[in-house]
């Protein structure tokens, strides 16, 4: 279970980092995205979606960790 959770968190972090980079966000307060916690990345992505009013598209949603657990 530990490896699955770690993989799910890593997948979600990578997804969020890529989405933020695509929007021109590379770092904040001199801290690069790869140094951020998952919670920080999620919060920034929520702010971005709210500010830019990004259309709801299934591909724009971060991977669901529960879905990954159910598959394996």
TrEMBL record:
Where is the organism placed in the taxonomic lineage, from the top? Bacteria, Bacillati, Bacillota, Bacilli, Bacillales
Its protein name is: Fur-regulated basic protein FbpA
Q: Please, which domain of life does this record's source organism belong to?
A: Bacteria
């Amino acid at each position: 279970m530990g490896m699955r959770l770690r993989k799910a968190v890593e997948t979600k972090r990578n997804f969020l980092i890529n989405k933020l980079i695509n929007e021109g966000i590379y770092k904040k307060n001199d801290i690069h995205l790869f140094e951020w916690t998952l919670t920080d990345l999620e919060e920034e992505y929520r702010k971005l979606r709210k500010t830019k009013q990004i259309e709801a598209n299934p591909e724009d949603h971060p991977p669901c960790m529960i879905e990954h657990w159910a598959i394996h």
